[in-house]
Design goal:
By secondary structure, the chain is of the alpha/beta class. Helices cover 43% and strands 14% of the residues. The model has no long low-confidence stretch (mean pLDDT 96). Bound molecules: 3-methyl-2-oxobutanoic acid (KIV).
Length: 264
């Protein structure tokens, strides 16, 4: 079934958890979509997992478009969202509209995501939504603000910062976001925000009470060299890929039996 913003809202009303993952290329996106996930995010974490940058800050609009196009060619059913990269939306609402519009036109994704909830950004969200662009919010740990935050640290731990985050969540909802990603915040705060909002929350490192969960796919598959402590890997593909390539190399070099032919 092809997902829309309405499907995701309906899932919240039905208390059916939303399953979300990230993707950065055609092959992976095809596997994830056929596995039946509800939402695929072309996240700017691709800068780290696919391009080898230290942070998400160097990622460009052109790089996001390049990867989102590849993912779009694979995805049939999942709702497809693309991150707006650092400085493509913070400068002013008109530049944000031009950049978000370019992503939608060039790639065919259904929505964009941006980080933060300060008052000027809420106005930008309003501008995009009024122009017809679905926007997903992102509060808590904001990777594009890693230097201001002093590292990838849990956010919203004090009563004051928790209250500010709830206020920002409500303002973003009022501005028209269709869903809100909550990253690395206390589970109690994520539960409160989830209960107060009518739109779905999707958590990562934010406890079990959000309306859905998202994960960077390289982390859940055990492909990354290191992954955040709040992510549970469900496979160890890094070791499996390494073992398969080692076996292949041995066979090519003639000191091990060749693997059996492919069943097809
Ligand atoms: O870019 C990304 O992968 C994200 C994660 C928090 C899911 O935004």
């Amino acid at each position: 079934m092809a997902h829309t913003v309405l499907t995701l809202q309906h899932y919240k009303q039905q208390a059916r958890k939303i399953v979300a993952v990230t993707a950065w290329d055609y092959l992976l996106a095809q596997i994830l979509d056929r596995a039946g996930v509800d939402l695929i995010l072309v996240g700017d974490s691709l800068g780290m997992v696919a391009l080898g940058y230290e942070t998400t800050l160097p990622v460009t609009l052109e790089e996001m478009i390049h990867h989102a196009k590849a993912v779009r060619r694979a995805v049939k059913d999942a709702f497809l969202v693309c991150d707006l990269p650092f400085l493509s939306y913070q400068v002013n609402p008109e530049a944000a509209l031009a950049n978000a519009g370019q992503i939608l036109k060039a790639t065919g994704v259904q929505a964009v995501k941006l980080e933060g909830g300060y008052p000027q950004l809420v106005l930008t969200v309003q501008r995009l939504v009024q122009a017809g662009i679905p926007v997903m919010g992102h509060l808590g740990l904001l990777p594009q603000a890693v230097h201001r935050l002093g590292g990838y640290r849990q956010q919203g731990k004090t009563p004051a910062t928790a209250a500010e985050m709830l206020e920002q969540a409500l303002a973003l909802q009022e501005a028209g976001i269709f869903a809100l990603l909550l990253e690395h915040i206390p589970a109690t705060l994520a539960r409160t925000i989830t209960e107060k909002l009518t739109i779905p929350t999707i958590g990562i490192g934010a406890g079990h009470d959000c309306d859905g969960q998202i994960v960077v796919t390289a982390d859940v598959l055990g492909l990354s060299e290191k992954w955040p402590p709040f992510v549970q890997p469900y496979a160890n593909l890094r070791a499996q890929v390494s073992a398969a390539i080692t076996a292949y190399a041995q066979a090519v070099r003639g000191n091990a039996p060749a693997s059996p032919p492919h069943p097809l």
